[in-house]
């Protein structure tokens, strides 16, 4: 007889309220010790992760983490401390430590909470909470099915394994303006990696799927088969002659280009004068059809939020419109350093959407004719100050608008200012596995260093 498992009770709202009460308690302690302002972050995370390899279980890991951070301000002096211990004496010591640090730091005119008038007052349901009562046995079965589907192809020589994960996160941010913000989110994943070929000809690749809800994940067997297909497609790579060619970044690689933009327009890089896009707000840095919009209230978005890490209300807004950089990415500290106002990006961006002006990947390849499709990038050869870009790459050589053969051991180089202005197309083939939602990006010409 099979045991009947009692349905799981969702107590997330009650747990959030406990975190909110804890935050109020810590803020009161900070005020009692003389802090002029204070902020508290409390979080709880739980998860299950399973890894299998070659048909055997490697790891089964259940996690339960807690974090409490306290920041206090004495005028313009700041101190922070953290703990995971809920005992009263530990909480007392954490607040005391933060206050002691603040008393011995130098004044910083940019420090302090975000302005009270900017705090979020509306908290829509963004559909980010989809618990999955995943048991270890079910997770193991899914990972096994994923790996088995990939290994069913005789050309797969080895496996780096398959994994299944499910996690829940509860968090509360509160400050002495009276703001208390609650967030809860789930995230689930399934992935695999395989090895094909022998000796120096071995190639590795894979596939993964993620979602806030279990029903957003791809079928395990389909993930395994796709991972195997991607690995096999890389076998017997060739080199290419060094030269300047059109370069098409696949959707999952294209978002790294957007990531370099985000780093260059972030407040920290700007006030340190360490960005190749200094003083570029209001100027054209992309083609006049190119646009990026931030959508923080997107339902079931991977980075949806009603407020940022400082409690500032988020809102839909353009980052780039018609090729023109509309604004920077600022929290209150960097905004004060620059004499500007926060853009509600303390903690990062919330669901960027890059506007497409072209069709799917096949249509982009057809339009490119001859050049390089990049499906892998390696190394960190990007200079954020000058914009110089040089990274190891792999992918496929394109002839007559079709994939001719895989390529490996090459370098793609240029300057990001030129790369941005030379973007020819953004595809409709959006990779949904990131909060930066973009299709493949075609750059008109970059230096490709291969065989001489």
**Overall tally of domains:** 2
Describe the biggest sheet? 6 strands, antiparallel
Strand share of the residues?
25-35%
CATH-assigned fold name of the largest domain: PmbA/TldD fold
Shape: globular
CATH architecture of the largest domain: 2-Layer Sandwich
Q: Low-confidence parts, pLDDT < 50 over ≥5 residues?
A: 1-5
Can you give the mean pLDDT? 96
* Class inferred from helices and paired strands: alpha+beta
- The total of beta strands comes to 17
| Cα-based radius of gyration, to the nearest Å | 25 Å
Q: What's the helix count? A: 9
Kindly report how far apart the N and C termini lie.
69 Å
Widest β-sheet, arrangement of strands: 3-2-1-4-5-6
Family: Belongs to the peptidase U62 family.
Domain Metalloprotease TldD/E central: 130-235
Domain Metalloprotease TldD/E N-terminal: 38-102
Organism: Pseudoxanthomonas dokdonensis
Explain the overall architecture.
The strands form 3 sheets. This protein has a 6-stranded antiparallel beta sheet. Strands 7-12-13-14-17 form a 5-stranded mixed β-barrel. The radius of gyration is 25 Å and the shape is globular. The protein is built from 9 helices and 17 strands. Strand 2 and strand 3 form a beta hairpin. It is an alpha+beta fold. The longest helix has 21 residues.
């Amino acid at each position: 007889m099979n045991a009947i498992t009692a349905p799981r009770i969702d107590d997330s709202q009650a747990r959030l309220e406990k975190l909110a009460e804890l935050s109020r308690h810590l803020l009161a302690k900070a005020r009692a010790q003389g802090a002029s302002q204070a902020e508290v972050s409390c979080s709880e995370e739980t998860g299950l992760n399973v890894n299998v390899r070659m048909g055997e279980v490697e790891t089964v890991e259940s996690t339960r983490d807690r974090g409490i951070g306290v920041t206090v301000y004495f005028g313009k002096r700041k101190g922070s401390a953290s703990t995971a211990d809920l005992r009263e004496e530990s909480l007392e010591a954490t607040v005391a430590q933060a206050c002691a640090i603040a008393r011995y730091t130098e004044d910083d005119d940019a420090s302090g909470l975000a302005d009270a008038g900017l705090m979020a007052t509306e908290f829509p349901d963004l559909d980010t909470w989809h618990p999955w009562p995943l048991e270890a046995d079910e997770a193991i079965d899914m990972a096994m099915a994923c790996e088995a589907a990939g290994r069913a192809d005789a050309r797969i020589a080895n496996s780096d394994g398959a994994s299944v994960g499910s996690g829940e996160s509860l968090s509360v941010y509160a400050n002495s303006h009276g703001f208390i913000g609650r967030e809860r989110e789930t995230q689930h994943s399934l992935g695999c990696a395989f090895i094909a070929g022998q000796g120096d000809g071995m190639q590795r690749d894979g596939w993964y799927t993620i979602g806030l809800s279990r029903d957003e994940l791809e079928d395990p067997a389909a993930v395994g088969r796709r991972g195997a297909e991607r690995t096999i497609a890389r076998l017997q790579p060739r080199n290419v002659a060094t030269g300047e060619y059109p370069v098409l970044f696949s959707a999952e690689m294209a978002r790294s280009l957007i990531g370099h933009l985000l780093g260059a327009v972030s407040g920290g890089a700007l006030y340190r004068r360490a960005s190749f896009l200094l003083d570029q707000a209001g100027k054209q840095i992309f083609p006049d059809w190119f646009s990026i919009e931030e959508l923080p209230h997107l339902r079931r978005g991977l980075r949806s939020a009603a407020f940022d890490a400082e409690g500032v209300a988020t809102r839909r807004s353009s980052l780039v419109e018609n090729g023109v950089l509309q604004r920077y990415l600022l929290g209150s500290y960097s905004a004060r350093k620059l004499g500007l106002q926060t853009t509600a990006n303390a903690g990062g961006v919330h669901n960027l959407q890059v506007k497409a002006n072209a069709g799917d990947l096949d249509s982009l390849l057809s339009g490119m004719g001859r050049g390089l499709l990049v499906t892998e990038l390696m190394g960190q050869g990007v200079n954020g100050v000058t914009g110089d870009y040089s990274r190891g790459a792999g992918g496929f050589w394109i002839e007559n608008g079709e994939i001719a053969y895989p390529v490996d051991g090459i370098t793609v180089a240029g300057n990001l200012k030129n790369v941005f202005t030379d973007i020819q197309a953004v595809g409709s083939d959006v990779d949904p596995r990131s909060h930066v939602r973009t299709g493949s990006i075609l750059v008109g010409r970059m230096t490709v260093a291969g065989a001489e």
